[in-house]
Amino acid sequence: MLELRPTCENCDKSLPPDSLEAMICTYECTFCLSCVTEILDNVCPNCGGGFEKRPIRPKKELDHNPSTTTRVFKPVNLNSFQVLKEKMMNINPKDR
Predict the structure, then answer these.
(1) 26 lies in some domain
(2) Domain residue limits at 50
(3) Does any domain span residue 15?
(4) Sheet harboring 30-32: ordered strands across?
(5) CA within 13 Å, CB half, 65
(6) Does 8 map to a domain?
(7) Total domain count for the chain?
(8) Distances (CA, A) of 32 to 9, 63, 64, 95
(9) 2 lies in a domain?
């Protein structure tokens, strides 16, 4: 079951369960669309994978399986991330 984390790990922007801006990697690292496209260039700073839109859980299911309230806030160190980003950003995520 997806956690549906409540915020962007980089900028701490609120990403409620019905957000169309929530992006996740295969490990559920969660970032907002702006950070993924403008800063991360579709490279997860934690695993090097790509991102996909996070699915929206139907409202009636949130009663039984609510989103997590645990916030993960660890802004990306752009200097150390630059090496990983340059290595991965031009490789299709399925080929990384």
Answers:
(1) yes
(2) 22-91
(3) no
(4) 30-32, 22-24, 52-53
(5) 9
(6) no
(7) 1
(8) 8, 24, 25, 23
(9) no
| Both structure tokens of 86 | 């340059």
3-state secondary structure the chain: CCCCCCECCCCCCECCCCCCCEEECCCCCEEEHHHHHHCCCCCCCCCCCCCEECCCCCHHHHCCCCCCCCCCCCCCCHHHHHHHHHHHCCCCHHHC
Q: CA–CA separation, 37 vs 50, rounded Å?
A: 11
Kindly report, residue by residue over 10-64, the tens digit of the pLDDT. Answer: 999 999 999 999 999 999 999 999 999 999 999 999 999 999 999 999 999 999 9
- Which two tokens mark 92? 């299709």
Short-list 80, 6, 1, 4, CA closest to 43: 80
pTM listed for this prediction: 0.93
Q: ∠ CA(35), CA(82), CA(31), 5° rounding?
A: 20
Q: Write down how long the chain is.
A: 96
CA-based nearest residue to 29, from 13, 50, 14: 50
